[in-house]
Structure formats: C-alpha cells, structure tokens
Amino acid sequence: MITIPLYVILFIYFAFLVIFGIFSFVNLGHIYHSGALTFVSFIFTIFIALFVIGNFILTFNLLIGTDWQQPVTVWNSAWISNTLTFNNI
Amino acid sequence: MSSVSSLIKIKSYEHVVHVIRRHGVTFIPYILLFLILICIPVIAYYLFEAAFTNVLQGPQATPIVVLAGSTYYLALALFFYSFFVEFYLDCWILTNDRLVDVRQISLFARTIAEVDLYQIQDVSSEIKGFFPSIFNYGDVYLQTAGPVPKFILLNVPNPDGLRQQILDLASEDKKFHA
C-alpha cells in the first residue's frame, strides 16, 4: 500500500497555478504588445479575471478546515487482488 | 508600445486608415462551447453522486474533488482566454500605403505579411450563408502582383464597404507609383 499526505496534491495544484500564471501573462503580453488594448479586450480580460478570482474564492472556502496531513492511498494491491478474486461468484 | 506601430513600422507619409478584425459574431461558437464545458463537471458530479452515493464526499475525497474542479475551471478559463487572444489578434491593418495581414496562428506563432496597395490588381467580397447575411460579414479576396499573390480577409464586418475602401485607397496609391 502506498500512501501520500494530502498536501502533496496541494503542491501539484500550486505547480499548475504557476503554469496558469505564466500562460496568462503571455496572453496579456500579446494583447499589450500587439496594440490590442481596446474596450473589447479590456472587458474580456476583466470577465476572465473575475471568473478566475471567483474560482479561487470558491476553492478556498470549500477547502477551509481540511486536514492536509491526512494520508491518501494512491495504490493498494488489495484493489487488484479483490478484483481478481472470484469467491463471490 | 501599445499601438499597431509595434507590429509595423509606420512610414513618415503613412497613416493607419483602419484596423480590421473578424466580426464578433464569429466568436459566439467559442462562447457557447465555453458555457457547455462549464456545465459538464457539475452534471458529471451529480450523475456520479446519484450512481455512487457519498463516494465523492469525505475528508479525503472532498479536497481532491475540489482541487480537480478548480484545476479544470482554471484550465478552461486559460484556454478560453487563449482562444480570444488568437481570435482578437488576427487582424488586418489598412493604411494609405499598404495592407498588413497579422495572423496569430497560436499563442507562440504569428505571421505578418503585407502588400502595397498599388500592387493590388483585383478585390472581391463575398457574403455567404445565413448568419453572414444577417450580420453583414464575410470574406474579402485580394489578387496582387506582389510576392504574396492572394490575400484573404476572413469574416470581416461590412466586406462590400471594405472592398470599396481598399479599391479607393489603391487607386489613390497608384497615382504615386505611376
């Protein structure tokens, strides 16, 4: 049986956030450097920003009180052995 | 630089007449796709809950489900924003001297081609289909004598008016290159 602490998944999420941030800034840089700073692009950027902020707030609220030290089983050989056991047939 | 001059170097006698982008209506399919993709995890969650009660709830499962959902929605927002940037940065810059085609192929790929207006031989416009007819958008085709023989302006608003504008500017420019 292999278990990992729950905070490992949180670190994976943070790694994704870094990639998300980089690509978002690339997009913003494209808009800025291409002379596309218009009302339309501004409104669209605000809409996306609000969507992302809403996502963060909701995620944060749903994760309040989580015990990040608790173990999570990522692999258990019993899952396979139970599947291959035909005692119940 | 936050103007089109960051894309092209404006000559001393040149001025930008028009920056043409694709008609906004052509972005609606992306918006609809975005809305559908927003709904999918919610529907999937309720279907899964109905089939396997309380599997997605509990001290271990809940944080994982929340983080997975958050990741999905952030990725969705990023893809949607990238689609918008690619859509919006595709443009054609019409000056009194040339037409510049800026094509944002992907987030890390862009091509810029241009044609001098005096090299334009033929301009035609096409409005084809139900929505293009209603919202007055379509394609403008340019035949040129330059290194890029054919230019296509896709899904631009008011293609007939734009065709006439290009023809007028081309005939003006030909006076200086006669």
Low-confidence runs of chain B: none
Question: What's the overall average pLDDT of chain B, rounded?
Answer: 89
User: Approximately how much beta-strand content do the residues of chain A carry?
Assistant: 5-15%
Number of domains of chain A: 1
Distance, first to last CA of chain A: 26 Å
Looking at the structure, what is the overall shape of chain B?
elongated
| Order of neighbouring strands in the sheet with most strands of chain B | 1-2-3-4
Describe the 3D structure.
The complex is a heterodimer of chains A (89) and B (178). Chain A has one domain (2-84). Chain A is built from three helices and two strands; from the N terminus they run E-H-H-E-H. Chain A has helices at residues 7-33, 39-63, 77-84, and strands at 2-5, 71-75. In chain A, strands 1-2 form a two-stranded antiparallel ribbon. At the A-B interface, helix 1 and helix 2 of A face helix 2 of B.
What brief labels describe this structure?
heterodimer; A: 89 residues; mainly alpha; two-stranded antiparallel sheet; 2 strands; B: 178 residues; alpha+beta; 4-stranded antiparallel sheet; 3-stranded antiparallel sheet; 4 helices; 7 strands; 29% strand; elongated
SSE layout:
The complex is a heterodimer of chains A (89) and B (178).
Chain A: E1 2-5, H1 7-33, H2 39-63, E2 71-75, H3 77-84
Antiparallel strand pairs in A: 1-2
Chain B: E1 16-21, H1 28-51, H2 61-89, E2 91-95, E3 98-106, E4 109-116, E5 120-126, H3 130-135, E6 137-144, E7 150-157, H4 159-176
Antiparallel strand pairs in B: 1-2, 2-3, 3-4, 5-6, 6-7
